[in-house]
Protein: PrsW family intramembrane metalloprotease
Amino acid sequence: MDSKFVNACRKVGSFVWTGVKRNYDNLDDNIAKHLGENNDETVEIHLSKMFSEVFKRHTQDEADKLFIVGTKTTTPSLKKVSSRPVKPWFFSRIFLVLAISFSMLMLLLYLFKSDKAIPGMIFIGSLAVPFSLLMMFFEINVYQNISILQLLTTFLVGGIMSLLVTMTLYLALPIKTSVSIENALLVGFVEEVAKALVIILFINRYRVNYIFNGVLIGAAIGAGFSVFESSGYVSEYGLFTIFTRSFQAFGTHTIWAAIVGGAVILGKTRKKPFTIVNFFTNPRFDVFLLLVIALHTFWDWDIPNSTMWVSLGQELIDVVIGWFTITILIDAGLREVKTLQGQIITNKKASRRIIKRLKSN
Structure:
């Protein structure tokens, strides 16, 4: 009886997986269509292609060009912005440098018994994954209209500010030390709303209007939040915490805040600030915010009587959903570029027609 049940489960699993394989490549694009502005062109995103440049050789000049952006003279016009599939690569070099630095600090601590390496391990360990992800989103911002100075300011000031807002909200709400579903939901709500408020503040301050801009600003604030929170956890629970927190950062605050940042752009009127009315009434924003709160809740929830494998399964599900949502926003961002560039062409054609009519009259 057990073997029949197992075989039946395998058949069902195989059937489901076949359907997923057939439809995944178009699923994110179909969802992104409903977020865009009436652009029916297909935008293909394949993760294997997206990261295809990571293992290729790149020159120093290519790396330098990535950072000379965001100024009046280096921000390209909209018609020159690329709508081709994004292929970030430099973030992997940053991660490699930080990983090597962390390894050398470990040698100082464990080989030479130097306790002076501990602060460096805490900082570099907390920084490695979130900051590398942040640089990935910096590369993905095809508009190149946010400078490295703005990015670092947002990362530091925005990250700390989001922690301050979080602690302020914690004072007003009855947070307990238990890991029940109710408490996990409360923590997820407080932290994600706090980050969302700071993201909205920075997006309005910088007056940005594109999905990729929102994703980048959100990622910067989420990365800052992650770095400072992880450092605090190490001081509270010990140095080993840095290893688990570093790997977990791949699918937590940086990704969640990037999703909210993209949602803020989707939820506001173009070239106008995001308002309190948008916060409570725009479904494009609210759905993504609720999704992020749900992801945070599910991540923090300690299911009663569960094993370590169940907890790892929770984290894996969270990471998959989070990154799938990121691909949807990237897809929607590329669609946005094509739509805006199409509007420029349409407007030019309309202007030419008007001029011809005026001349003929």
